[in-house]
Amino acid sequence: MAEEAPSTDIITLTRHILSDQIRLGPAATGDLTLLLTAIQTTSKFIATNVRKARLINLIGLAGELNVQGEEQKKLDVLSNDIMVNSLRASRKTSVLVSEELDDAIIIDDTHRGKYCVVFDPLDGSSNIDAGVNIGTIFGVYKAHSETGDVSDVLRPGREMVAAGYTMYGSSCNLVLSTGGGVNGYTLDAALGEFILTHPDIKIPPRGKIYSFNEGNSTYFHPPVINYLNSIKYPSAGKSPYSARYIGSMVADVHRTLLYGGIFGYPDDKKSKSGKLRLLYEAFPMAFLTEQAGGLATTGRGRILDVEPKSIHERCPVFLGSRDDVNDLLKFFQEK
Ligand code: AHG
Ligand code: MN
Ligand code: MN
Ligand code: MN
């Protein structure tokens, strides 16, 4: 059989978001396109630093604690600075919230645009030094206020106009939704371009994998313990689920979107609101999960409907395949 000729019509991320803008007609100003272009550049820049980290002394601690009391790694700080500089320079943003900054940044008049970006510059810090997958997570709101105010980002995740993440792994993948489904792109390092490789990602309605840090089981509440037991010790004739837990939300969610199953970081007796941050971890990942046809819940309600009170607040997260998340919810309803 003759080999297929290589494609001469590749779809780059820039081409794809530009065609989306054209589809929306003259009402679309192109500002979101330019903002997403700036974000993809930050991902390339962070990716090259992640690859070289061991060689250029970018491994290890930066020597400061962030607002949540975590020790910042050098790559956390560098990635944050890359994001802030690029987003400000894009002239398309008005408010920025980062995991690594105590307060929201209100962009000065000369650089102000109409979008607000919430981001986790480097997700999975504990995995950096071992070369395990890490990522960047972002969510985008359209500003309400004229001059930029923290209230522009203290809004439910369902109001986001775009969300996505980049995973720095065996390949570098950017996964993005602007509200019309989810698309995945792979960085072609030779071209320096993200190429559309995963069009219209749909999460399987049921999976076979669960992804929780079971080391915290002693603190878990009964609904979570009972659910985990139900998938580990299923009724006769059914197979137990496989466990996969990387400890980088980006990598665990990426696998869940592609293979299906359930990812969870519950609230428990020790962490009253769980660990993951609502604005820049839970919301963007919930947005992508729903756009891919899955469910994302706190156990008590839809994540995207939570009304944030402060920029660094935390929230319990359970997301993934529709049937698996519904199974978990039955245990919460029993309570
Ligand atoms: P970050 O590195 O941005 O602080 O996020 C870490 C988060 C997330 O990536 C992951 O899902 C979770 O922490 C893992 O926590 P445990 O080590 O407690 O399992
Ligand atoms: Mn952190
Ligand atoms: Mn994180
Ligand atoms: Mn982080």
TrEMBL record:
Highest taxon listed in the record's lineage: Eukaryota
SUPFAM superfamilies assigned to the protein according to its UniProt record, in alphabetical order: Carbohydrate phosphatase
GO CC, alphabetical: cytosol
Enzyme class: hydrolase
BP term (GO), one: gluconeogenesis
Enzyme Commission number: 3.1.3.11
The Fructose-1-6-bisphosphatase class I N-terminal domain, residue ranges: 11-199
Pathway, per record: Carbohydrate biosynthesis
Signal sequence extent: none
PROSITE patterns: FBPASE
MF-aspect GO terms: fructose 1,6-bisphosphate 1-phosphatase activity; metal ion binding
Catalytic activity field: beta-D-fructose 1,6-bisphosphate + H2O = beta-D-fructose 6-phosphate + phosphate
InterPro entries, per database record: FBPase_C_dom, FBPase_class-1, FBPase_N, FBPtase, Fructose_bisphosphatase_AS
Residues annotated as domain Fructose-1-6-bisphosphatase class 1 C-terminal: 203-331
Keywords assigned: Carbohydrate metabolism, Hydrolase, Magnesium, Metal-binding
UniProt cofactor(s): Mg(2+)
Family per similarity comment: Belongs to the FBPase class 1 family.
NCBIfam families for this protein: PRK09293.1-1
Subunit structure: Homotetramer.
Protein known as: Fructose-1,6-bisphosphatase
Organism expressing this protein natively: Sanghuangporus baumii
